[in-house]
TrEMBL record:
It comes from Marinobacterium halophilum. Probably part of a binding-protein-dependent transport system. Probably responsible for the translocation of the substrate across the membrane. It is a multi-pass membrane protein. GO terms for biological process: microcin transport; transmembrane transport. PANTHER family: INNER MEMBRANE ABC TRANSPORTER, INNER MEMBRANE ABC TRANSPORTER PERMEASE PROTEIN YEJB. The chain crosses the membrane at residues 9-30, 131-152, 164-190, 220-243, 280-305, 325-344. Belongs to the binding-protein-dependent transport system permease family. The lineage of its organism: Bacteria, Pseudomonadati, Pseudomonadota, Gammaproteobacteria, Oceanospirillales. This is Inner membrane ABC transporter permease protein YejB. PROSITE patterns: ABC_TM1 (PS50928).
Amino acid sequence: MAAYILRRLLLIIPTLFGILLLNFVLVQFAPGGPVEQTLAQLQGFGDAAGNRIGSSQQSDVAAGSQNESGYRGAQGLDPSLVAEIERLYGFDKPAHERFYQMLVSYLQFDFGKSFYSDKSVTDLIIEKLPVSISLGLWTTLLTYLISVPLGIRKAVRDGSAFDVWTSSAIIVGYAIPNFLFAILLIVLFAGGTYLEWFPLRGLTSQNFDQLTWWQQIGDYFWHITLPVLASVVSSFATLTMLTKNSFLDEINKQYVLTARAKGLGENAVLYRHVFRNAMLLIIAGMPAALIGIFFTGSMLIEVIFSLDGLGLLGYEAVINRDYPVIFGTLYIFTLAGLLMKLVSDITYTLVDPRIDFSSREV
């Protein structure tokens, strides 16, 4: 097992390199980068651009001599000003040199500073992480608490009226995207059109610090209810059907028939013999599901409910072409995802010692 873990850890290196290289190449061809945005703001004398490069360079804008820059928006701007903007964002170096410097920094977990917030990428992630952890943790917990018992019940009563109507409800829930269901919840319960039972924005109220501890707990759950509900509805369908199919597959095996023939009750057969084998795939997949909900599944939910988490951070970084944040979060999330996949494999062996990865090729 140790040799298998070592091979998987070594495989992370080329995987990370390939993902970063592919995204870096794509970014080079994407229009509207930070240099172009700053040039566009300077053409209109935008305050944001002016604050970043200083008043001395702004006077050069007024001079407005023609330049030989490759940027379309640089027409009429002083070449030295354009060069200063390129240096500010690190675009004064060739692409391969910038990529090499990025890799060296990332190996030291130095992700640089955001182009726009003047904070380090690490500080931004730490600042936004509690919101995403709250959303992801409650979503994962409720998804498993609902899906596993429901899946077992559907397997036991396969083909019954209960199985049919719950399958219909699951299909409807699976067909509705989480962002669309979130909008529906806002319309119905957050003052969109009908009821105004829940707040629309944020994870806490503005007077949260002035509340007592039990009022703070109530305020937190009051705000998190709709986002978590929107996330759960779209994610429990797959897990429910996976649980049902796993139990059905085990129930029809010979050892279950033998246990029943020995006179064991249905609950004893189900939870002593079937449960451990059927739950193998579900339990082992929990780490990967958790990391997926944390870093990918919550983006649209955070945007819709104005939750200042990692999903919203990534969305704003892409919109603003904040490359340090884009690549820093990509590196961290990819590394975390690869490590959690390894944890999933290790979990397989803990749940069922008969599984041995050491004899397998990666």
